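Internal tracking record. Fields below are filled automatically when a chain is submitted to the structure queue. Please do not edit lines marked as system-generated. If the sequence contains nonstandard residues, flag them in the REMARKS field before resubmitting.
Queue: standard
Priority: normal
Entity type: single polypeptide chain
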Amino acid sequence: MRQTNGWRYNIVSFLVVLSLLLSAFWLLMLIGYQLGAYNPLTWLACVLIISLLTSLLLTKTKPKLASKTINNTFHRSFSQRTIITWLGGLYAAVWLLGLGWFFSIEAKQSRDWMPEVSQRVTYKRDTTNPDLITFTNVRNFDWHTSEDATERWETRTVDMSKLSGVDVINSYWMGPLIAHTLVCFRFEDDRPLAFSFEIRKENGEAFSAFAGFFRRYELSLIASEERDIIYTRSNARGEQVYVLPVSHLQQSEVRSLFESYLTAADELNAKPAWYNTLTSNCTNIIFYMARIVSGERLPWDYRIWVSGWLPNYLYDVGMLDANPNNSGQPWSMATWYERAHINPKVRGFDNQANLDTQVNGSRFSAQIRQGVPIPPLADSQAKADAEAKSAAKASND
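SYSTEM-GENERATED OUTPUT FOLLOWS
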C-alpha cells in the first residue's frame, strides 16, 4: 500500500511541477512578446517569476534545503505546508494577473502597417442586382523583389451568379509541414479573385509562430489578384506553391463559401481580431467556414492544424478528383503534387510587362493552371450531361 501511494504521489508531483513550469513559460513568453525582450520591465518580471517559482519548487521538493534559505524565526513560526500555501497562492495570483492582462489586450485597426496589409477590403452590393459585388481595396501590387513593390489598390466588380469553382492554394515557406493557404474563386469569363487570411504586420515586424500565440498580430483579410498574392510567393519569395482545384462542389456551396468571406470582411471591419497560430490561422479559419457550407463532407482531422498536409486531406475526403476528366489512370497524391506545382510554370513570368494589368493577370492565372484539370461544378455537370443525353435521344428519334 505504501509503495502504491508513493507511486501515485510521484506522478501527481511530476504533473504539478510540469504544470508550474509550463505556466511560467507561457507567462514569460507573454511578457517578452508584449513588452519586448530588452525592456527593463521584462527582465524585472522574469526575475520575480523565476524567483517565486524556484522558491516554491525548492520548498515543495527539498524542504531541508529550503529551510536553510529561509529565516529560522520565520521557519519556526510557519510549517512547510503553510509556506507552500503562501508561495503557491502568490504565484497563482501573479499568473492570473498575467492571464487577465492577456485577455485585456485589444486588437486595433490603426497602427503603422506594412503597405501590403495597410488597407481593409470593403464591398457593396448592387441595389438592383445583389449578385453584383463591388470590392474596394483589392490588392494588385507589382512585386519587384520579396519586399519591394509598386502599390496598387483597385476597385473590382464580380458577379456571384458566374461563380464556377474554387481552388485551394498552398504555399510552402518553412518545410513540408507548414504552408500558407489561400482560396481562389473562379468565374465564368472573368479572372479569379483570391482571398487570404494573414497577419497584419506592422512596419519592421517579422512573423513568429510563437508570437502568434500571444496576441501579437492582428488578423487581416486580403482580397487580391492572383498576379499579386500568388506571384509574390512563387516568384518574388521563392516559396513552393501548389494550385488544387476542389472537385464535386455544388454552385450553392461555392456561393455560400464566397458569402462567408463577405461576412468575415464585415466582422473584421466592425471589430479587429487577433491572429492565433493554433486556433485562428490561415488554414483552420477557412476550414471552419467551409465546414458550415459542406458539413460532414469535411470531417475533423489533425491535418487541419498541420497546414502542409491539407492537400492530402482534400484528396482523402474526395475533394481532389482521383480520376480527373475520366483520364483512365487514376491520379495518386504524388501525381497531384507534380501537376499542381506552379513554380516551373511561371518561372521567368514578367509580372511587370507593359500590358494592361487585367490582361497580365489573366495570363498568370492561366499559366498556373496548366496541366491541372479544372472540374465543373457538380450541378452544372449534371445539367450538361442531361442536356447531352436529351440531345442524343432527340437525334436518334
